[in-house]
Specification:
By secondary structure, the protein is of the alpha/beta class. It is elongated. The protein contains ten helices and five strands. It has one domain (about 1-250): SGNH hydrolase (Rossmann fold, 3-Layer(aba) Sandwich), CATH 3.40.50.1110. It has helices spanning about 1-40, 65-70, 80-85, 105-110, 125-130, 135-150, 175-195, 215, 220, 230-250, and strands at about 60-65, 90-95, 115-125, 155-160, 200-205. α6 crosses α7. The chain has a five-stranded parallel β-sheet with strand order 2-1-3-4-5, with helices on both faces. Helix content is about 50%, strand content about 10%. α7 (about 175-195) links the parallel β4 (about 155-160) and β5 (about 200-205).
């Protein structure tokens, strides 16, 4: 009898916890959706007369998901696109990133870009992680995306979300799954970039939780929805992105 009572109590506790996590997730997702709806992606049209570049202005494009849009940043200037534009003040920047986009949807975004670009930034893979895209499907998608990007740009920089296992919105018991998927997707992207023709590079944002600021100070590095990066989160990512941008030696 005592064993039965103990089992019933454990089941009730488990059900209560799962209900709490469900309600908590719904609340945070609602916050994230409101943030996404209110976010205007950074873009800038630069007059050719302001650029010293022979033959026209420096042209940059941003492709990807909500982190390309800049959801979570307090203002567009603190997003990856905004920080990149600040690095190249005389450049134009076209932003075709879409909230919620998976990697295969980046092909449609690239198709919207007219003309040739000096640099295309691609930030995808986060939604493929949390929505459990098959790895083979993801590999095929990123190969197609990079091939299309190389055809439109002199330089291509690919990145993806760091360790999704640190995301506070996700129930703690599930985080090890997303941490594992983060590592697999990271290596998949590294391998595809290495096999792609053209000047294509990968910015590695994955870090072990013991040194990852997103894991150590989640309230600082994640936005109010505890899913998207905050201003501090985007600044942290851009620290690494910026180093790779320097390697492209883009002329201002």
């Amino acid at each position: 009898m005592k064993i039965l009572v103990a089992v019933v109590i454990i089941i009730l506790i488990l059900i209560s916890y799962l209900f709490y996590e469900y309600q908590r997730s719904l609340h945070l997702i609602a916050i994230g959706e409101a943030m996404a709806a209110a976010t205007v992606p950074f873009s800038r049209t630069a007059a050719p007369s302001t650029s010293p570049i022979p033959g026209g202005e420096l042209r940059i494009a941003m492709v990807g998901d909500s982190t390309g849009v800049g959801t979570g940043a307090s203002v567009a200037e603190f997003s990856i696109a905004g920080l990149t534009a600040a690095k190249y003040p005389s450049a134009s920047l076209v932003n075709v990133a879409v909230n919620g986009a998976k990697t295969n949807e980046a092909l449609a975004q690239l198709a919207k870009l007219d003309g040739h670009f000096n640099l295309i930034l691609i930030d995808v893979g986060g939604n493929d992680n949390v929505r459990f895209t098959n790895y083979d499907e993801l590999s095929s998608s990123i190969k197609q995306v990079l091939a299309a990007a190389v055809a439109k740009s002199d330089h291509v920089l690919l990145t993806t979300t760091g360790n999704v296992g640190t995301v506070p919105l996700l129930p703690w018991f599930s985080r090890f799954i997303f941490a594992h998927r983060s590592r697999v997707i990271r290596q998949l992207f590294i391998d595809v970039v290495a096999a792609t023709n053209g000047d294509v590079r990968y910015t590695d944002l994955y870090r072990d939780p013991s040194i990852d600021p997103f894991a150590l100070e989640p309230k600082k590095y994640y936005a109010r929805d505890l899913f998207h990066p905050s201003d501090a989160g985007y600044a942290d990512w851009f620290y690494f992105i910026n180093q790779q941008l320097d390697e492209f030696h883009l002329v201002q």
